Amino acid sequence: MSVGIRPETKLAKMAGVALGKRGGILIDDQCRTNVDSVWACGDACETKNWISGEYGILALAGPASRQGRIAADSMILGDKSKLRYRGSQGTFVCGAFGFTIAGTGINEATAKRLGIAYDSVTTHPAQHVSYYPGAKMMDLKVLFDPTDEGRILGAQCVGEEGAERRIDIIAAFIQKRGTVFDLEEAELCYAPQYGAARDPVDMVGFVAANSIRGDSPLAHWDQLEKGVPLIDVREIHEYTKGSAPGAINIPLNTLRERLGEVMKIVDAADEKKNTPGAEKRRRVYVTCHVGQRGHYATRALRLNGFDARNVSGGYRSYMAYQQQENNKKKQHPEPGTCGVES
Q1: Nearest one of 231, 208, 332, 340 to 282, comparing CA atoms
Q2: How far, in Å, CA of 176 to CA of 148, rounded?
Q3: Within 13 A of 160's CA, how many CA atoms are on the CB side?
Q4: Which helix (H) or strand (E) holds 327?
Q5: Between 230 and which of 25, 130, 249, 285 could a Cys-Cys bridge form, CB atoms 3.0 to 4.6 Å apart?
């Protein structure tokens, strides 16, 4: 297994070329170094991520090739060259164990580390319509500016088929500083064997835009407020196979009939959390399997006076979140447990 790379820049350092914090060669937007008549490009350079502004090593063929073209133009034309390298966004793809993993822009860990304000949406669509043979589910996550601007910050996708296509589309939108509202309007080619009339790219735009507008606000499994009720609107046979701790099952097709029951649950929770006389918030979280039925329930509840929020990705995302938490416990066991589960 090979994890990470380190640039070989001894010659550059001996020649007086400036290096960055990660040991890569520092270049400007014409791929020039600080030493006259010395250009550099590719894996040995530190390039600017034009979303985060952070410099880093990026071992990708696409950016290296573009840098080579810009460096050659600069060598011949000097300052008359009109080509400029505006930075990288780290668009990548790889395959492992029959799955394709692709991404572009910054991820959640980078956003947290750099203090960049963000929200995210996770969806679990098929690569094409489910009624056409061979439909396979993907996991698609998009990070975006949580303000009204809704600028796309990054995306990651995993699936057996179709993951790289969606990331390529979103990467192009990022290049143009696109927003989730632009994803809503993306007009993509469609036939049943290739996609859907509402492509996964459109859908992720719908979900994010609905959240920003306040029509169907999102919540996330790692950020749920303690004491706030969680309503699981899946069918009973789905709920009994597994559910998030404390989730109350009220199937979507019975929700409107049971609004009084929901009101009692939410008001009771408010009374426990609030001081006497305080205004009732009537906040409630909603979940389903992947988020679609949760959206319908969230809309119904909000139209009836509840501060309802749809938990992004539903129970499928919960299972992934729980697996992640379990892995963390194994990597960092509590003192005296040795990581062994009882």
Answers
A1: 231
A2: 17
A3: 7
A4: helix 314-331
A5: 285
